[in-house]
Amino acid sequence: MTSTPLARARATTVASVPSGHVYVRHLAPESGDGPVRLPDPPPLGVRRPPSQQWWPPAMLDEAWVDAHAHEIDVFHLHFGFDALDPARLDRIASALRRHGVPLVYTVHDLRNPHHTDRTAHDAQLDVLVAAADALVTLTPGAAAEIERRWGRTARVVPHPHVVPLAAMRAARTARDVRSRARTDQPFRVGLHLKSLRASMAPELVLPTLVETVADLPGAVLQVNAHRDVLGSDGPRHDADLARLVRGYADAGRLELRVHDYLSDDDLHAYLGGLDLSVLPYRFGTHSGWLEACRDLGTTVVAPSCGYFAEQGPVLGYRLDEDGYDPETLAAAVRRGHAERPDWGASVAQRRRQRADVAAAHDDLYRRLVEEAR
């Protein structure tokens, strides 16, 4: 059906699950125009803290769909369905079909980084990929895998910036000032041990990093770890890893910084102070951490699993569920030290990209709404 000028003048109303995540916030144009995304309802059974917690998402419920379908034009799922079994996801999709509300699913994860066993996530994907009226993903490799596994075409729309554009500009300026002012500051290689997702293999990469960085003039290995991992009473405490990390720290072979979760500002300052950030993942698909590093001018050392290398320029090494090649990691770090690449995205590039990403989503939503009519 051809839309009328009046119909096209009304902004599309989208139930994004979630809407408060930084990725979703940056799908909107800077101007604030474009689709209207409903705010995240308070999570079921959870008192909303100052951080504006959105999980578990209240919208992921067939009763919510029945009660609010008249308020929305499109339902767009991103994250938050980890705890839902496939039957419930199917009921939610059925409720959306019953009310004539199109379902968009952005496939961020083809392999859940929190699950050692992929069976449960694969079963969820079987439901969502089949049920969605439109699929989006972030890289051509992920789109090819979706086509191969389910015979469905996913629109490729790249990950927008993570760091706010003003903070990006300030971080880049600060990096340039440091570079001009001093030549004796250390070359800083970072490894972050954050709550130890199932996908992480720091015990494999850490010995390689310690030995490699020790041989590089003026280089320092910085390990940041959360208290819940290294603290003996932490809920995610790993005694073997704690002994390994603290042993290297006590021997003066790395700088250890233990802390709780960092605020966004503190996280950006930390990442912006690194020259290399090493991702220790055995499996995964895409990375917001990688995008934040690109925003801040920090070079990423990324494993061979997933599609990290398609998100932007990285130094690659071999680590996946089939094995690890320490020499490839050592070579990547040595290359980073020798070449000091500047592969970060500029503010101008991210601004143009955000406009393109926003337009792509607006176009997709409008097409689906017209087809639903």
Tell me the number of helical segments per DSSP (H or I, 4 or more residues long). 14
- The CATH superfamily of the largest domain is identified as Glycogen Phosphorylase B
Work out the number of β strands: 14
CATH-defined architecture of the largest domain = 3-Layer(aba) Sandwich
- Work out the radius of gyration: 22 Å
User: Alpha-carbon distance between the termini?
Assistant: 7 Å
Instruction: Report the principal-axis shape.
Output: globular
Characteristic key phrases:
disordered N terminus, 2 domains, alpha/beta, 373 residues, single chain
Characterization of the model:
- This protein is an alpha/beta fold.
- The chain folds into two domains: 5-161 and 352-372, Glycogen Phosphorylase B (Rossmann fold, 3-Layer(aba) Sandwich); 165-344, Rossmann fold.
- Helices cover 42% and strands 16% of the residues.
- It has helices at residues 5-9, 22-25, 62-68, 86-98, 119-131, 140-150, 165-181, 202-214, 227-230, 239-250, 264-272, 288-296, 326-339, 347-372; strands spanning 13-17, 36-37, 74-77, 103-107, 134-137, 154-156, 187-193, 219-226, 255-259, 276-278, 299-303, 315-317, 319-320, 323-324.
- A six-stranded parallel beta sheet has the order 2-1-3-4-5-6. Strands 9-8-7-10-11-12 form a six-stranded parallel beta sheet, with helices on both faces.
- Strand 1, helix 2 and strand 2 (36-37) form a beta-alpha-beta unit.
- The protein is globular and about 65 Å long.
- The model is unreliable at 1-8 (pLDDT under 50).
